[in-house]
């Protein structure tokens, strides 16, 4: 039997009905069409499905959508403000912080959560922040360089 | 594919226990689901009813008084990791949590869920055993307490009867001159332990003799286990490198590891031997500073 799920995604309220077994990643991608969030390993290992829930990074493949009832979700689609990309996105572009791009949205969301909690992370803390995210092109250093540039204030957030 | 199930989201412990009592073996409890959902996706667990306790806020807390620490079973790993109180008074708990899986998993997964999952490679169980924790389990007929070391029974099997729920973890205030440490060996930082070792040492006043010691092993047997023979080597003596080496040997013999994708049985025994010695030394140093 389907159950009601009321939550916000990128500020937009939704009121939908889902089967209890539906995972959060499935609701985001398959029900709402927000395909920026990636389904990677589907077993909580790779982090490609990372989204923010009430400000915390979580793996959307490893939680029931119903557990997000009442929550505020932010996906990679919610990072940019209008046409202005988020500083992390700008920095990723400038530093070539992706190759195939599959891990990028998860990386961005994990890092967005990290910066919310700690706006001035050290290099070690940045590494810890993406500990749960795998980049199989092994582009970690360029990601760390991009975040470091954001932390240094080289990219300004849109007002 | 996950099989369909009926989902209940009780808001109070009482409601949850009524549901568990009603559905007994046909239901499964989910909290953060960081382990359970993987098993459900593989079809290894397929409950008819899922009792989702994530919303029972009364079971999420950290309290400290003169008797010790009380942690509600639903407290997330990340909350424990970041608690200033725990960092100061029970640093081993925060250190263990920092190495448990990834931030995302720690944000959603709970310490109670981790222990109830009964994975012998889980990080919290050996640490709780070393800290001599007591677990409170509730059912519709009332509560009962048991030592953490009696809770883990076998692979993915814990001492919960159908209808029961783990509600609280109690950790006694550490006696003076006590040091507790934990480490695990793993290849990928956010992975489960290939072997985990927790050691707690309490020194006598002035004489430096080991008054009490608890050694707990993870991923070294079908359940998190106490290495009592290794403890006996150290207890009542002044700890030396030679004694620690002997304790490591004993622990390595009493462990019952298996060979799997992460390591062979022989390799695990070697890890137990080395890590017990190393953690014994660290626990001793911490006890001297305490």
Question: Can you put this structure into words, describing what you see?
Answer:
The complex is a heterodimer of chains A (159) and B (290). Chain A is α+β, with helices and mostly antiparallel strands. Chain A folds into 2 domains: 3-78, Beta-grasp domain (Ubiquitin-like (UB roll)); 87-151, DNA polymerase, domain 1 (Orthogonal Bundle), CATH 1.10.150.120. In chain A, 31% of the residues lie in helices and 16% in strands. Chain A has helices at 24-31, 87-95, 104-117, 123-129, 140-151; strands at residues 3-9, 12-18, 50-53, 56-59, 72-74. Chain A has a 5-stranded mixed sheet, covered by helices on one side. In chain A, a hairpin with a 2-residue loop joins β1 (3-9) and β2. In chain A, α2 crosses α5. The mean pLDDT of chain A is 96. Chain B is built from 11 helices and 14 strands. Chain B is an alpha+beta fold and 290 residues long. In chain B, α2 links the parallel β2 and β3 (49-52). Chain B folds into 3 domains: 6-52, Uridine Diphospho-n-acetylenolpyruvylglucosamine Reductase, domain 2 (2-Layer Sandwich); 62-172, Uridine Diphospho-n-acetylenolpyruvylglucosamine Reductase, domain 3, CATH 3.30.465; 178-289, Enolase-like, domain 1 (2-Layer Sandwich), CATH 3.30.390.50. In chain B, 36% of the residues lie in helices and 25% in strands. Chain B has helices at 13-23, 36-41, 77-82, 84-89, 91-98, 103-108, 111-117, 124-130, 228-234, 241-254, 265-289, and strands at 6-8, 27-30, 49-52, 62-65, 68-72, 134-139, 142-147, 152-154, 157-158, 165-172, 178-185, 195-203, 210-218, 225-226. The radius of gyration of chain B is 19 Å and the shape is globular. At the A-B interface, β4 and α3 of A face α2 and α6 of B.
């Amino acid at each position: 039997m389907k159950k009601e799920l009321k939550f916000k995604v990128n500020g937009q309220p939704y009121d939908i009905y889902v089967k209890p077994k539906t995972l959060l990643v499935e609701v985001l991608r398959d029900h709402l069409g927000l395909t920026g969030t990636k389904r990677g390993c589907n077993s909580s290992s790779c982090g490609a499905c990372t989204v923010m829930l009430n400000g915390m990074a979580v793996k959307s493949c490893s939680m029931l959508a119903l557990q997000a009832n009442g929550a505020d979700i932010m996906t990679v689609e919610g990072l940019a403000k209008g046409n202005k990309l988020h500083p992390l996105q700008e920095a990723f572009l400038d530093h070539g912080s992706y190759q195939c791009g599959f891990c990028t949205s998860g990386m961005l969301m994990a890092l967005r959560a990290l910066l919310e909690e700690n706006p001035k992370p050290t290099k070690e803390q940045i590494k810890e922040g993406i500990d749960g995210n795998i980049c199989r092109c092994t582009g970690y250093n360029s990601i760390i360089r991009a975040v470091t540039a954001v932390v240094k204030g080289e990219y300004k957030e849109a007002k | 594919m996950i099989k369909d199930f009926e989902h209940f989201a009780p808001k109070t412990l009482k409601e949850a226990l009524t549901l568990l009592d009603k559905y007994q073996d046909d239901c499964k409890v989910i909290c953060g689901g960081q382990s359970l959902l993987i098993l459900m996706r593989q079809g290894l667990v397929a409950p008819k009813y899922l009792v989702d306790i994530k919303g029972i806020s009364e079971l999420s807390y950290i309290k400290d008084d003169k008797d010790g620490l009380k942690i509600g079973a639903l407290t997330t790993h990340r909350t424990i990791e970041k608690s200033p109180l725990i960092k100061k008074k029970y640093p081993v708990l925060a250190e263990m949590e920092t190495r448990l899986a990834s931030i995302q998993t720690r944000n959603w997964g709970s310490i109670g869920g981790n222990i109830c999952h009964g994975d012998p490679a889980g990080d919290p169980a050996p640490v709780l055993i070393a800290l001599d924790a007591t677990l409170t389990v509730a059912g519709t007929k009332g509560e009962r307490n048991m030592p953490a070391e009696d809770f883990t029974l076998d692979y993915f099997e814990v001492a919960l009867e159908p209808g029961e729920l783990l509600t609280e973890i109690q950790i006694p205030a550490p006696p003076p001159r006590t040091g507790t440490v934990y480490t695990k060996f793993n290849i990928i930082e956010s992975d489960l332990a290939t072997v985990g070792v927790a050691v707690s040492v309490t020194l006598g006043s002035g004489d430096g003799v080991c008054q009490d010691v608890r050694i707990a092993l993870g991923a070294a047997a079908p359940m998190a286990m106490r290495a009592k023979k290794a403890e006996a080597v150290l207890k009542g003596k002044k700890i030396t490198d030679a004694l620690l080496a002997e304790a490591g040997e004993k622990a390595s013999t009493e462990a019952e590891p298996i060979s799997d994708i992460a390591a062979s049985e022989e390799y695990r025994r070697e890890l137990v031997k080395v890590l017990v010695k190393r953690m014994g030394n660290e626990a001793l140093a911490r006890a001297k500073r305490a």
